[in-house]
From TrEMBL, chains A, B:
Protein name: MarR family transcriptional regulator
Stored Gene3D superfamilies: Winged helix-like DNA-binding domain superfamily/Winged helix DNA-binding domain (1.10.10.10)
Transmembrane segments: none
SMART domains in the record: HTH_MARR
HTH marR-type domain: residues covered: 13-145
Length: 150, 150
DNA sequence: GCTCCAACGTTGGTGAATCCAACGTTTCGA
DNA sequence: TCGAAACGTTGGATTCACCAACGTTGGAGC
């Protein structure tokens, strides 16, 4: 009952959902530190990365790509636009939509952020070999695909 | 630029941290549904499970075991105590501490919750074979151990 | 053409999970 | 004995995730 041994193996800490959540929590913490260096948050990075990878898109499309709710996309895009990293322009072909595009500064920031994130991956996966990292990636990808139906 | 294909493969969605976070998000959602059936939340379950597995403990110890901040343990234990699932008693050997113990009702609830969580694991890992589930568990466990130094 | 429904952007709000600072009390080591 | 450390507690902050509602716009069916 003393505080000396926090590493007693038990059932809770062997459930996949516990492992996933705790590992994800560590990942989130590492990512947050990386984000802080750019004065951005997770939503900002996801949106910038999606724009850098797949090009301009409507807000609703961005939300679907990034797994972010439409209403949260609004606020995040407001931030990014306010900092000159993206531009919000009405879609002439569909007046319901806004077309969000990266500015040059936004593309730069996305690139720099990508470097930061890459270093975080290395730190996160430090104890795993290259083959193990691939294995983990494959397993998680399959889980994600299976649950992607929403 | 249309909304028909949300499954375009791209870099963001192949980073381990993205996969971990998204998978964890699905796990959290599935768990939340399970918790809701018991009218509990994640913190409650973690504390009950830790008590059921390792026996009574001080609040600070529980926090370390479960990865929950001391101040959040207070509120969660308040809830659990208010519902008669745990008892909070001063530690006669150390008057700074409270000893938290499961009641009979709390042990029952922990057991039932364990069943629910077990079903959630199955749903979460549905696409994986037994060997793959073990593999995932091992990889995540190693990651967690590596980052456990705080 | 007109009607109805769907999609869009937006506002506002809710909740869970995480974390931090500070405080008074109690314990323990130097 | 004295100061540092641990404990429980209060209060607050942030991030992520989700939902309901509204007015506007587009499209499909009649």
């Amino acid at each position: 009952m003393e505080s000396t041994a926090p590493q007693s193996p038990a059932g809770l800490r062997t459930t996949p959902s516990w492992l996933l959540n705790q590992t994800a929590a560590h990942a989130t913490r590492l990512l947050s530190e990386g984000f802080a260096a750019h004065d951005l948050r997770g939503y900002h990075y996801r949106l910038l990365a999606a724009l850098a990878e797949d090009g301009p898109a409507s807000q609703a499309d961005l939300g679907r790509r990034c797994g972010i709710d439409r209403s949260d996309v609004v606020a995040a895009i407001n931030d990014l636009a306010g900092r000159g990293l993206v531009v919000r322009a009405p879609d002439p072909a569909d007046r319901r939509r806004n077309v969000i595009s990266l500015t040059a500064a936004g593309a730069d920031e996305a690139h720099r952020m990508g470097d930061t994130i890459g270093r975080v991956q290395d730190e996160l996966l430090a104890p795993l070999s290259t083959a193990e990292r691939d294995q983990l990636t494959r397993l998680l990808t399959r889980l994600l695909q299976h649950h992607a139906r929403r």
